[in-house]
Design goal:
Layout (H helix, E strand, L loop, with lengths): L1 E6 L2 E4 L4 E9 L1 E12 L6 E7 L4 E3 L7 E6 L4 E6 L8 E11 L7 E4 L3 E6 L1
Parallel strand pairs: 2-11
Antiparallel strand pairs: 1-3, 3-8, 4-5, 4-9, 5-6, 7-8, 9-10, 9-11
């Protein structure tokens, strides 16, 4: 019913930048929030950044000041601009969105993308 398609991952050197994109499609009535999570090898998945429907933003302390999340409401798309990348930013980055479907009574359900790999080398 809903698909989240991520793009923009890749291999970069420390200090460089990448921009991730995630587009939501399907039977969408309303997108409540859009977020980026990441999971490094051997570690738990963690929240990187979130933007709500009313524009509130929060970041993990480790990326605050280096990453910027934004969204295009018309396109149901969220972006993550990642600057000054560090070795410890290497991870699979997952898009997450809380979405209310057309015809459903719930406030929203969580959906996940399949992930995009970001590798930062020295």
């Amino acid at each position: 019913q809903v698909q989240l398609v991520e793009s923009g991952g890749g291999l970069v050197q420390a200090g460089e930048s990448l921009r991730l994109s995630c587009a939501a499609s399907g039977n969408i009535f309303r997108v409540n929030s859009m977020s980026w999570y990441r999971q490094a090898p051997g570690k738990q998945r963690e929240l990187v950044a979130r933007i709500t429907s009313d524009g509130r933003i929060n970041y993990d302390d480790s990326v605050n000041g280096r990453f910027a999340i934004s969204r295009d409401r018309a396109k149901n798309t969220v972006y993550l601009q990642m600057n000054n990348l560090k070795l410890e930013d290497t991870a699979v980055y997952y898009c997450n969105s809380n979405i209310k479907l057309v015809g459903m009574n719930h406030y929203g359900l969580d959906y996940w993308g399949t992930g995009t790999l970001v590798t930062v080398s020295s």
